[in-house]
Amino acid sequence: MLITPVDRLFEAHLVVADLDASIAFYRDRVGLELAHVTPARHAAFFWVGSRGTTMLGLWTGGSAPQKTTTHIAFAVRSDDVISAPRALQSAGSRPRALDGRPTDEPVVLAWMPAVSIYFHDPDGHLLEYVAMLPEDPRPDRGVLPWHEWTQREVPVGIFGPPAGIPDV
Length: 168
Prior knowledge:
Strand order of the largest sheet: 2-3-4-1-5-8-7-6-9
Structural class: alpha+beta
Strand content: 25-35%
Order of helices and strands: EHEEEEHEEEEH
Number of helices: 3
Low-confidence stretches: 154-168
Helix content: 10-25%
Radius of gyration: 18 Å
C-alpha cells in the first residue's frame, strides 16, 4: 500500500567530529549555502543547490535527537505531508513529531519554513516527509505543530483590531 508519493530525496545527515571545522569546509570549500545553525543541538544545515530544494544536516557526534545516522527525508507535496499522519496510521506506522513523540499532525520547522512528519521503517530508521512552505522564514517561532502555524496573527492597525474582533 503506497502511503505518500515521494518526489525526491530532500535531506541527508552526517555526523561530524568538529562542527565548526565542518561548517567551514562545506561552506568555503564545497560552496554550500549555510542555512541555519542550532548551537544548543550542535547542528548546522546547508542548502544543496537552490534554497528549499535539498539540504545537508551536520551533527556533532551524539548530539542528534533522532539518531541522525539513520535519518533520511523525502520531499513530497505539502498536502501529502498534512494528510500523512492519517495515511501512516492506516498503514500501521506511528507518525512522530521532531522530538520523537507520537503525533496526529505534522510540525513546522519555522526557520525554513517547512512542514514535516516523521516515522520509522521496520528497521527503526527515522524517515521524514517534508515540504517547503511558501511563507517567509520565521526562526523566532522554532518548531511548532501545524495547527499553530496555520493560525493567522490578527493584524492590528492604527485604529485597533479589525471589526468583529474584540480588543482585549
